[in-house]
Protein backbone atom coordinates (compact mmCIF):
# COMPACT_ATOMS: atom_id res chain seq x y z
CA UNK A 1 0.00 0.00 0.00
CA UNK A 2 1.32 3.42 -0.91
CA UNK A 3 2.15 5.90 1.82
CA UNK A 4 0.92 9.43 1.23
CA UNK A 5 2.77 12.46 2.52
CA UNK A 6 0.71 15.47 3.61
CA UNK A 7 1.78 18.75 5.10
CA UNK A 8 -0.13 19.97 8.14
CA UNK A 9 -2.14 22.49 6.17
CA UNK A 10 -3.38 19.78 3.82
CA UNK A 11 -4.27 17.58 6.79
CA UNK A 12 -6.13 20.41 8.52
CA UNK A 13 -8.11 21.26 5.42
CA UNK A 14 -9.12 17.63 4.97
CA UNK A 15 -10.37 17.58 8.57
CA UNK A 16 -12.27 20.88 8.29
CA UNK A 17 -13.87 19.99 4.96
CA UNK A 18 -14.93 16.54 6.20
CA UNK A 19 -16.78 18.19 9.07
CA UNK A 20 -18.64 20.50 6.66
CA UNK A 21 -17.04 23.64 8.08
CA UNK A 22 -15.83 24.85 4.70
CA UNK A 23 -17.91 26.87 2.24
CA UNK A 24 -20.41 26.61 0.78
CA UNK A 25 -22.35 25.74 3.92
CA UNK A 26 -24.58 22.66 3.89
CA UNK A 27 -28.30 23.41 3.75
CA UNK A 28 -29.97 20.14 4.77
CA UNK A 29 -30.06 18.79 8.34
CA UNK A 30 -30.42 15.13 7.39
CA UNK A 31 -27.58 15.32 4.87
CA UNK A 32 -25.50 17.00 7.56
CA UNK A 33 -26.10 14.24 10.10
CA UNK A 34 -25.44 11.55 7.51
CA UNK A 35 -22.04 13.07 6.76
CA UNK A 36 -21.12 13.65 10.41
CA UNK A 37 -22.66 10.22 11.30
CA UNK A 38 -23.66 11.45 14.76
CA UNK A 39 -24.36 14.45 16.94
CA UNK A 40 -23.36 14.02 20.57
CA UNK A 41 -26.11 14.70 23.11
CA UNK A 42 -24.99 16.73 26.10
CA UNK A 43 -27.33 18.62 28.43
CA UNK A 44 -24.95 21.55 29.00
CA UNK A 45 -26.59 24.66 27.58
CA UNK A 46 -24.32 27.49 28.68
CA UNK A 47 -24.72 28.76 25.12
CA UNK A 48 -26.92 26.11 23.49
CA UNK A 49 -27.17 22.30 23.69
CA UNK A 50 -24.43 20.58 21.74
CA UNK A 51 -26.73 19.07 19.09
CA UNK A 52 -28.11 22.49 18.25
CA UNK A 53 -24.78 24.32 18.43
CA UNK A 54 -23.10 21.83 16.09
CA UNK A 55 -25.97 22.07 13.62
CA UNK A 56 -26.02 25.89 13.78
CA UNK A 57 -22.27 26.13 13.19
CA UNK A 58 -22.79 24.31 9.87
CA UNK A 59 -26.27 25.33 8.74
CA UNK A 60 -26.37 28.84 10.13
CA UNK A 61 -29.50 30.85 10.88
CA UNK A 62 -31.76 28.55 8.86
CA UNK A 63 -31.41 25.84 11.51
CA UNK A 64 -34.03 25.56 14.24
CA UNK A 65 -33.86 23.12 17.19
CA UNK A 66 -37.39 22.07 16.29
CA UNK A 67 -35.96 20.66 13.04
CA UNK A 68 -34.05 18.01 14.98
CA UNK A 69 -36.99 17.30 17.27
CA UNK A 70 -39.30 16.74 14.29
CA UNK A 71 -36.76 14.50 12.58
CA UNK A 72 -36.46 12.43 15.76
CA UNK A 73 -40.06 12.30 16.94
CA UNK A 74 -42.32 12.74 13.92
CA UNK A 75 -40.44 11.84 10.76
CA UNK A 76 -38.21 9.20 12.39
CA UNK A 77 -35.42 10.23 10.02
CA UNK A 78 -33.05 10.37 13.01
CA UNK A 79 -32.84 8.25 16.15
CA UNK A 80 -31.18 8.57 19.54
CA UNK A 81 -28.84 5.76 20.53
CA UNK A 82 -25.86 5.64 22.85
CA UNK A 83 -26.21 9.36 23.75
CA UNK A 84 -25.91 10.27 20.08
CA UNK A 85 -28.34 11.46 17.42
CA UNK A 86 -27.83 9.27 14.35
CA UNK A 87 -29.42 8.94 10.90
CA UNK A 88 -32.12 6.29 10.86
CA UNK A 89 -30.63 5.03 7.61
CA UNK A 90 -27.67 3.83 9.72
CA UNK A 91 -29.79 1.69 12.03
CA UNK A 92 -29.11 -1.55 10.06
CA UNK A 93 -25.40 -1.01 10.83
CA UNK A 94 -26.19 -1.25 14.57
CA UNK A 95 -28.72 -4.08 14.65
CA UNK A 96 -26.19 -6.93 14.67
CA UNK A 97 -24.29 -5.27 17.52
CA UNK A 98 -27.54 -4.82 19.43
CA UNK A 99 -28.25 -8.53 19.05
CA UNK A 100 -25.03 -9.53 20.86
CA UNK A 101 -25.02 -6.77 23.48
CA UNK A 102 -23.74 -6.74 26.21
CA UNK A 103 -20.16 -7.89 25.89
CA UNK A 104 -19.34 -7.60 29.60
CA UNK A 105 -20.24 -10.39 32.00
CA UNK A 106 -21.30 -8.00 34.78
CA UNK A 107 -24.03 -6.57 32.59
CA UNK A 108 -25.07 -9.99 31.29
CA UNK A 109 -25.33 -11.36 34.82
CA UNK A 110 -27.48 -8.44 35.99
CA UNK A 111 -29.84 -8.92 33.06
CA UNK A 112 -30.07 -12.65 33.76
CA UNK A 113 -30.82 -12.01 37.43
CA UNK A 114 -33.51 -9.46 36.46
CA UNK A 115 -35.22 -11.27 33.59
CA UNK A 116 -38.65 -10.88 35.22
CA UNK A 117 -37.94 -7.15 35.71
CA UNK A 118 -36.95 -6.91 32.04
CA UNK A 119 -40.25 -8.53 30.99
CA UNK A 120 -42.19 -6.21 33.33
CA UNK A 121 -40.57 -3.14 31.76
CA UNK A 122 -41.30 -4.30 28.22
CA UNK A 123 -44.91 -5.13 29.11
CA UNK A 124 -45.45 -1.71 30.72
CA UNK A 125 -44.01 0.11 27.70
CA UNK A 126 -45.99 -2.04 25.28
CA UNK A 127 -49.27 -1.25 27.02
CA UNK A 128 -48.66 2.36 28.11
CA UNK A 129 -45.63 3.77 26.28
CA UNK A 130 -43.98 6.05 25.57
CA UNK A 131 -43.13 6.70 29.21
CA UNK A 132 -40.61 8.59 31.27
CA UNK A 133 -38.43 6.43 33.51
CA UNK A 134 -40.25 7.66 36.62
CA UNK A 135 -43.47 6.16 35.24
CA UNK A 136 -41.97 2.66 35.06
CA UNK A 137 -42.19 0.65 38.32
CA UNK A 138 -39.03 -0.82 39.79
CA UNK A 139 -39.68 -4.57 40.12
CA UNK A 140 -36.00 -5.52 40.06
CA UNK A 141 -34.90 -8.67 41.86
CA UNK A 142 -31.28 -7.52 42.12
CA UNK A 143 -30.36 -3.81 42.36
CA UNK A 144 -27.73 -2.36 40.06
CA UNK A 145 -24.56 -1.89 42.14
CA UNK A 146 -22.27 1.03 41.44
CA UNK A 147 -20.00 3.39 43.30
CA UNK A 148 -21.25 6.20 41.03
CA UNK A 149 -24.53 7.96 40.33
CA UNK A 150 -26.12 4.88 38.70
CA UNK A 151 -26.16 2.94 41.99
CA UNK A 152 -29.64 1.42 42.53
CA UNK A 153 -31.06 3.44 39.60
CA UNK A 154 -32.58 0.21 38.42
CA UNK A 155 -35.29 1.45 36.07
CA UNK A 156 -33.02 3.86 34.20
CA UNK A 157 -30.30 1.23 33.99
CA UNK A 158 -32.71 -1.41 32.63
CA UNK A 159 -34.09 1.04 30.06
CA UNK A 160 -30.54 1.95 28.98
CA UNK A 161 -29.62 -1.73 28.67
CA UNK A 162 -32.74 -2.61 26.70
CA UNK A 163 -32.07 0.31 24.36
CA UNK A 164 -28.55 -0.96 23.72
CA UNK A 165 -30.11 -4.39 23.00
CA UNK A 166 -32.59 -2.90 20.54
CA UNK A 167 -35.65 -3.96 22.55
CA UNK A 168 -36.47 -0.42 23.68
CA UNK A 169 -35.96 2.89 21.89
CA UNK A 170 -36.09 6.55 22.84
CA UNK A 171 -39.30 7.85 21.32
CA UNK A 172 -38.80 11.51 22.16
CA UNK A 173 -38.22 13.94 24.99
CA UNK A 174 -40.29 15.96 27.38
CA UNK A 175 -37.90 18.82 28.08
CA UNK A 176 -34.66 17.05 28.94
CA UNK A 177 -36.45 13.90 30.08
CA UNK A 178 -36.30 10.93 27.73
CA UNK A 179 -39.46 9.06 26.76
CA UNK A 180 -39.04 5.33 26.23
CA UNK A 181 -41.09 2.92 24.14
CA UNK A 182 -40.83 -0.56 22.67
CA UNK A 183 -38.49 -0.45 19.70
CA UNK A 184 -41.03 -1.71 17.15
CA UNK A 185 -43.06 1.49 17.57
CA UNK A 186 -40.03 3.72 16.99
CA UNK A 187 -37.82 1.91 14.48
CA UNK A 188 -38.98 1.14 10.92
CA UNK A 189 -40.27 -2.37 10.32
CA UNK A 190 -38.57 -4.87 8.05
CA UNK A 191 -34.97 -3.67 8.39
CA UNK A 192 -32.27 -6.24 7.72
CA UNK A 193 -29.24 -6.24 9.98
CA UNK A 194 -25.91 -5.84 8.25
CA UNK A 195 -23.61 -8.68 9.44
CA UNK A 196 -21.45 -7.59 12.36
CA UNK A 197 -18.02 -7.61 10.68
CA UNK A 198 -19.34 -5.86 7.59
CA UNK A 199 -21.19 -3.33 9.72
CA UNK A 200 -18.01 -2.53 11.64
CA UNK A 201 -16.11 -2.03 8.40
CA UNK A 202 -18.79 0.27 7.00
CA UNK A 203 -18.94 2.25 10.24
CA UNK A 204 -15.15 2.60 10.16
CA UNK A 205 -15.35 3.89 6.59
CA UNK A 206 -18.10 6.34 7.47
CA UNK A 207 -16.26 7.54 10.56
CA UNK A 208 -13.14 8.21 8.51
CA UNK A 209 -15.20 10.01 5.87
CA UNK A 210 -16.76 12.19 8.57
CA UNK A 211 -13.42 13.14 10.12
CA UNK A 212 -11.24 13.09 6.99
CA UNK A 213 -8.08 12.02 8.75
CA UNK A 214 -7.48 9.80 11.78
CA UNK A 215 -4.36 8.62 13.55
CA UNK A 216 -3.62 4.98 12.76
CA UNK A 217 -3.69 2.94 15.94
CA UNK A 218 -1.54 -0.03 16.83
CA UNK A 219 -4.66 -2.00 17.79
CA UNK A 220 -6.17 -1.43 14.35
CA UNK A 221 -9.40 -0.11 15.85
CA UNK A 222 -10.02 1.91 12.70
CA UNK A 223 -9.55 -1.15 10.51
CA UNK A 224 -7.81 -0.89 7.18
CA UNK A 225 -10.01 1.84 5.77
CA UNK A 226 -8.72 4.75 3.73
CA UNK A 227 -5.14 5.33 2.70
CA UNK A 228 -2.09 5.40 4.94
CA UNK A 229 -0.34 8.73 5.29
CA UNK A 230 2.30 10.60 7.20
CA UNK A 231 1.93 14.23 8.12
CA UNK A 232 5.11 16.28 7.90
CA UNK A 233 6.40 17.29 11.31
CA UNK A 234 4.02 14.93 13.14
CA UNK A 235 5.17 11.51 14.36
CA UNK A 236 3.29 8.33 13.50
CA UNK A 237 0.99 7.32 10.67
CA UNK A 238 -2.54 8.32 9.76
CA UNK A 239 -5.53 7.09 7.77
CA UNK A 240 -6.98 9.48 5.20
CA UNK A 241 -10.25 9.38 3.32
CA UNK A 242 -9.12 9.05 -0.33
CA UNK A 243 -12.17 10.99 -1.57
CA UNK A 244 -10.93 14.01 0.41
CA UNK A 245 -7.63 14.27 -1.41
CA UNK A 246 -7.16 17.12 -3.84
CA UNK A 247 -10.47 18.81 -3.10
CA UNK A 248 -10.73 22.63 -3.29
CA UNK A 249 -10.86 24.55 -0.01
CA UNK A 250 -12.56 27.86 0.77
CA UNK A 251 -12.32 28.62 4.43
CA UNK A 252 -14.65 30.52 6.73
CA UNK A 253 -14.88 31.45 10.38
CA UNK A 254 -16.94 29.35 12.79
CA UNK A 255 -17.61 29.16 16.51
CA UNK A 256 -17.59 25.56 17.66
CA UNK A 257 -19.11 23.64 20.53
CA UNK A 258 -16.54 22.19 22.96
CA UNK A 259 -18.03 18.81 22.00
CA UNK A 260 -17.69 19.41 18.26
CA UNK A 261 -16.19 16.45 16.41
CA UNK A 262 -13.54 18.66 14.88
CA UNK A 263 -12.08 19.30 18.34
CA UNK A 264 -13.24 16.31 20.41
CA UNK A 265 -9.90 14.49 19.95
CA UNK A 266 -7.58 16.79 21.88
CA UNK A 267 -4.42 14.94 20.78
CA UNK A 268 -5.40 15.24 17.10
CA UNK A 269 -6.00 18.99 17.29
CA UNK A 270 -2.69 19.42 19.10
CA UNK A 271 -0.89 17.47 16.35
CA UNK A 272 -2.60 19.00 13.33
CA UNK A 273 -3.76 22.42 14.53
CA UNK A 274 -1.21 23.12 17.27
CA UNK A 275 -4.22 23.96 19.42
CA UNK A 276 -4.60 23.41 23.14
CA UNK A 277 -8.09 23.01 24.53
CA UNK A 278 -9.62 21.78 27.77
CA UNK A 279 -13.27 21.95 28.76
CA UNK A 280 -13.08 23.81 32.05
CA UNK A 281 -16.67 23.56 33.31
CA UNK A 282 -15.57 21.12 36.01
CA UNK A 283 -12.74 23.33 37.23
CA UNK A 284 -13.08 25.90 40.02
CA UNK A 285 -13.70 29.32 38.51
CA UNK A 286 -10.38 30.70 39.76
CA UNK A 287 -8.47 27.97 37.89
CA UNK A 288 -10.09 28.45 34.48
CA UNK A 289 -7.97 29.95 31.72
CA UNK A 290 -10.60 30.27 29.00
CA UNK A 291 -14.00 29.99 30.65
CA UNK A 292 -16.75 27.62 31.75
CA UNK A 293 -17.85 26.69 28.20
CA UNK A 294 -15.32 28.38 25.91
CA UNK A 295 -16.11 28.03 22.20
CA UNK A 296 -13.13 27.15 19.97
CA UNK A 297 -12.73 29.57 17.06
CA UNK A 298 -12.07 28.11 13.62
CA UNK A 299 -10.70 30.54 11.03
CA UNK A 300 -10.25 28.89 7.64
CA UNK A 301 -7.92 25.94 8.36
CA UNK A 302 -6.69 27.06 11.77
CA UNK A 303 -8.03 27.00 15.30
CA UNK A 304 -7.07 30.45 16.47
CA UNK A 305 -8.69 31.08 19.86
CA UNK A 306 -11.61 30.65 22.22
CA UNK A 307 -14.69 32.72 23.07
CA UNK A 308 -15.87 32.79 26.67
CA UNK A 309 -19.60 33.37 26.19
CA UNK A 310 -22.78 32.63 28.12
CA UNK A 311 -26.40 32.83 27.02
CA UNK A 312 -28.24 34.69 29.79
CA UNK A 313 -31.76 33.97 28.64
CA UNK A 314 -33.60 35.71 31.44
CA UNK A 315 -31.67 38.89 30.75
CA UNK A 316 -32.02 38.40 26.99
CA UNK A 317 -28.25 38.70 26.45
CA UNK A 318 -25.44 36.65 24.96
CA UNK A 319 -22.68 37.79 27.32
CA UNK A 320 -19.13 37.69 25.96
CA UNK A 321 -16.61 37.84 28.81
CA UNK A 322 -13.45 37.31 26.75
CA UNK A 323 -12.07 36.47 23.34
CA UNK A 324 -8.82 34.59 23.84
CA UNK A 325 -6.40 34.89 20.91
CA UNK A 326 -4.08 31.92 20.50
CA UNK A 327 -2.49 33.78 17.61
CA UNK A 328 -2.60 37.54 17.03
CA UNK A 329 -5.82 38.35 15.18
CA UNK A 330 -5.73 40.37 12.01
CA UNK A 331 -8.43 42.99 11.50
CA UNK A 332 -10.21 40.57 9.18
CA UNK A 333 -10.17 37.80 11.79
CA UNK A 334 -11.47 40.13 14.49
CA UNK A 335 -14.35 41.26 12.29
CA UNK A 336 -15.15 37.69 11.24
CA UNK A 337 -15.41 36.61 14.90
CA UNK A 338 -17.65 39.61 15.66
CA UNK A 339 -19.92 38.67 12.77
CA UNK A 340 -20.18 35.09 14.05
CA UNK A 341 -21.02 36.33 17.55
CA UNK A 342 -23.71 38.63 16.18
CA UNK A 343 -25.13 35.77 14.13
CA UNK A 344 -25.07 33.47 17.16
CA UNK A 345 -26.87 36.04 19.31
CA UNK A 346 -29.49 36.60 16.61
CA UNK A 347 -30.03 32.86 16.23
CA UNK A 348 -30.47 32.57 20.02
CA UNK A 349 -32.83 35.57 19.92
CA UNK A 350 -30.60 37.43 22.34
CA UNK A 351 -28.83 40.76 22.33
CA UNK A 352 -25.06 40.66 22.06
CA UNK A 353 -23.60 41.96 25.31
Structure characterization notes:
The chain is globular and about 65 Å long. The model has no long low-confidence stretch (mean pLDDT 96). The chain has a 5-stranded mixed beta sheet, with helices on one face. A 4-stranded mixed beta sheet has the order 1-8-9-7. It has a 3-stranded antiparallel beta sheet with strand order 2-4-3. The protein is built from 11 helices and 14 strands. By secondary structure, the chain is α+β, with helices and mostly antiparallel strands.
How would you describe this structure in keywords?
35% helix; four-stranded mixed sheet; five-stranded mixed sheet; 353 residues; 11 helices; 14 strands; alpha+beta; single chain
Strands of the biggest beta sheet: in what spatial order? 10-11-12-13-14
Cα-atom Rg, whole angstroms? 22 Å
Order of H and E elements? EHHEHHEEHHHHEEHEEEEHEEEHE
Q: What class would the helix/strand composition place it in?
A: alpha+beta
> What is the approximate shape?
globular
Query: What proportion of the residues form beta strands (DSSP E)?
Result: 15-25%
Main β sheet profile: 5 strands, mixed
Question: How many separate helices?
Answer: 11
Which stretches are low in confidence, meaning pLDDT under 50 for 5 or more residues running? none
Helix content: 25-40%
Average of per-residue pLDDT values: 96
Number of strands: 14
Question: What's the N-to-C terminus distance?
Answer: 54 Å
Amino acid sequence: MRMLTLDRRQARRIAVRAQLLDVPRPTDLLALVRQLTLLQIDPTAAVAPNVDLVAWSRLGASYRPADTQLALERDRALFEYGAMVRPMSDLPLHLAGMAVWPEHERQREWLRANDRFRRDVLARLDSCGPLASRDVPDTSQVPWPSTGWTNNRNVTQMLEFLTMRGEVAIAGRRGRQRLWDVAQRVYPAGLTAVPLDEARRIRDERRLRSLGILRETASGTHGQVGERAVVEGVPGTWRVDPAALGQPFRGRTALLSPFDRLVHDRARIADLFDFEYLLEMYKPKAKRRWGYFALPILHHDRLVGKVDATAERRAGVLRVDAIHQDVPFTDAMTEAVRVELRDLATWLRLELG
